[in-house]
User: Fold this.
Amino acid sequence: MKPTMQKAVLISITFVVLSVMAPAQKVQTQSLPNFDFSQLHTFFVKIGTAWGNPISESEVEKMVAQTLTQKGWTQAASEQTADAVVVIHGATQEKHSLNTFYSGMGGWGWGGMGTATTSTTTYKVGALLVDIFDAREHKLVYRASAQDQISDKAEKNVKKVQKALDKMFKNFPPTSKEEK
Assistant:
């Protein structure tokens, strides 16, 4: 195989591998077993852990409130008048990935002359945690978390948050095992 052809094949394989390895959105949910969610009708949303962007924090608060409203709950005017208190936590973290490209006939013990070039890619990952507390008993009854790569474009991040919320609240409110 000619060196230019080999390089093209290696680059193609690398892109396929990198696209498979790209971080996918991870969403998890957990609820208090046998908790009767039918007793909760109103909610109040607040930020518990800010992530340093007041605009997106306000937007996520509205999105969570809209999601719960679509599930049949009503937003309360204050924490004191709500059946449930919804607390949102957010965080971001920089991550790094290493990409190595081989050219020529070297590398992986094939022998011959060749070179390897390694580059580092830095990207940001965001985490969103939504906790729902029974306001009367002050106990956690539902927790949902999502993690995904953050885009440089705000509109892409809004879509990612909406996708995460759709997954977080797909089967909300949960039914107890006795009702199933």
Q: What stands out?
A: Helices lie at 3-21, 54-70, 154-168. The chain has three helices and six strands. The radius of gyration is 23 Å. Residues 4-22 have pLDDT under 50 and may be disordered.
